[in-house]
C-alpha cells in the first residue's frame, strides 16, 4: 500500500473546480467531500488525506510540510513567496490582477495611495513602473477605497468585471493573469516522488 498523501484544498471559490478536476483525473472523492463542515477528510480508497483551509493559508500548510500538496491561486503565491514548488498550472479559477480607479482621474503626484489585499504584488508593480506609492492594506471590499477617498487606485482581482462596473470604476492596467496551481512541499517532492508524479501525470491528462 502506498503512503498517505496530504492535500491542502482551498475552501471557497476554487474548491468546486479543484474537486471536479481531481474527479476527472480519476480520483474517487466521496459525496461527503462536497457537503460537509469537516476540515479533515480521509479518502482511504485513494490514500489521500484532504485538509480544507482558507485559500490564503494553503501555501502555509504546504511550506510547513503538514500538507504534501496543495492547490493555491497564483495571486496568493505571488504575494507570499512561500518556500514551495509549483508543479502544474491547473488552469482553473482564472482571473487577473489589475490596477483600477475612478474614471478620468490621475494619481496624486506625491505618494499616491493604493488600496489592496496584495501589498507585495502592488508594491513590486509600482516599483517596476518607477512610481513611489503608499500601499494601504485592506482585507476585502477593495473597490470601496477610491469611492470614499481612501485611495487613488486599487490593485485587485478582476474576474467578470462586474464589481468594478457596478461601482463605477475602470481598469487602468492589467498586472498579471491568475489561475490556480498545484504546489508541493520540497521535502515531500523528494521522498514521495513516485506518488506525486502519478498525480501530476493524471492531472496533466485532464487540464
Ligand atoms: N472573482 C474572484 N475574486 C477573488 N478571487 C478569485 C476570483 N476568481 C478566481 N479567484 C481565485 O480564487 C481565490 C480566492 O478564493 P475565495 O474568493 O474563495 O477566497 P477569499 O474568500 O477571497 O479568501 P479569504 O477567505 O482568504 O478572504 C483567489 O486566490 C484567486 O486565485
Ligand atoms: O470581476 P468580478 O467577477 O466582479 O470579481 C472581482 C471581485 O471578486 C473579489 O471579491 P470577493 O467577492 O472575494 O469579495 P471581497 O471584496 O470580500 O474580497 C475581488 O476582490 C473583486 O472585488
SSE blueprint and pairings:
Blueprint lengths: L4 E6 L2 H12 L15 E4 L4 E6 L4 H6 L5 E5 H7 L4 E5 L5 E7 L11 E4 L2 H10 L5 E4 L6 H4 L5 E6 L3 H5 L3 E9 L1 E5 L1 H6 L1 H14 L1
Parallel strand pairs: 1-3, 1-4, 7-8, 7-9
Antiparallel strand pairs: 2-3, 4-11, 5-11, 6-9, 6-10
Which tags fit this structure?
single chain, 207 residues, alpha/beta, D-Maltodextrin-Binding Protein, domain 2, 2 domains, five-stranded mixed β-sheet, 31% helix, binds adenosine-5'-triphosphate, binds 1-O-pyrophosphono-5-O-phosphono-alpha-D-ribofuranose, glycosyltransferase
Outline the structure in words:
With 207 residues, the protein is an alpha/beta fold. The chain has two domains: 5-93 and 179-206, D-Maltodextrin-Binding Protein, domain 2; 95-176, D-Maltodextrin-Binding Protein, domain 2 (3-Layer(aba) Sandwich), CATH 3.40.190.10. Helices cover 31% and strands 29% of the residues. It contains eight helices and eleven strands. The chain has helices at 13-24, 58-63, 74-80, 119-128, 144-147, 162-166, 186-191, 193-206; strands spanning 5-10, 40-43, 48-53, 69-73, 85-89, 95-101, 113-116, 134-137, 153-158, 170-178, 180-184. A six-stranded mixed β-sheet has the order 2-3-1-4-11-5. Strands 8-7-9-6-10 form a five-stranded mixed β-sheet. Strand 7, helix 4 (119-128) and strand 8 (134-137) form a beta-alpha-beta unit. The protein is elongated, with a radius of gyration of 19 Å. The mean pLDDT is 96. Bound molecules: adenosine-5'-triphosphate and 1-O-pyrophosphono-5-O-phosphono-alpha-D-ribofuranose. Residues 12-14, 54-56, 73, 75-76, 93, 95, 157, 159, 178, 180 line the site of adenosine-5'-triphosphate.
Amino acid at each position: 500500500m502506498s503512503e498517505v498523501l496530504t492535500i491542502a484544498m482551498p475552501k471557497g471559490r476554487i474548491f468546486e473546480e479543484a474537486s471536479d478536476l481531481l474527479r476527472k483525473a480519476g480520483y474517487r472523492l466521496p459525496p461527503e467531500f462536497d457537503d460537509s463542515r469537516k476540515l479533515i477528510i480521509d479518502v482511504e480508497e485513494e490514500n489521500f488525506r484532504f485538509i480544507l483551509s482558507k485559500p490564503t493559508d494553503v501555501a502555509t500548510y504546504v511550506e510547513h510540510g503538514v500538507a504534501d500538496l496543495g492547490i493555491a491561486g497564483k495571486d496568493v503565491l505571488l504575494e507570499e513567496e512561500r518556500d514551495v514548488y509549483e508543479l502544474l498550472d491547473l488552469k482553473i479559477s482564472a482571473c487577473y490582477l489589475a490596477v483600477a480607479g475612478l474614471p478620468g482621474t490621475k494619481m496624486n503626484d506625491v505618494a499616491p495611495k493604493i488600496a489592496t489585499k496584495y501589498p507585495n504584488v502592488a508594491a513590486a508593480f509600482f516599483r517596476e513602473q518607477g512610481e513611489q506609492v503608499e500601499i494601504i492594506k485592506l482585507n476585502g471590499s477593495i473597490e470601496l477605497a477610491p469611492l470614499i477617498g481612501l485611495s487613488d487606485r486599487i490593485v485587485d482581482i478582476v474576474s467578470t468585471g462586474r464589481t468594478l462596473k457596478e461601482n463605477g470604476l475602470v481598469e487602468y492596467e492589467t498586472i498579471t493573469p491568475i489561475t490556480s496551481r498545484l504546489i508541493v512541499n520540497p521535502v515531500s517532492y523528494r521522498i514521495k516522488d513516485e506518488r506525486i508524479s502519478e498525480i501530476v501525470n493524471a492531472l496533466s491528462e485532464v487540464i
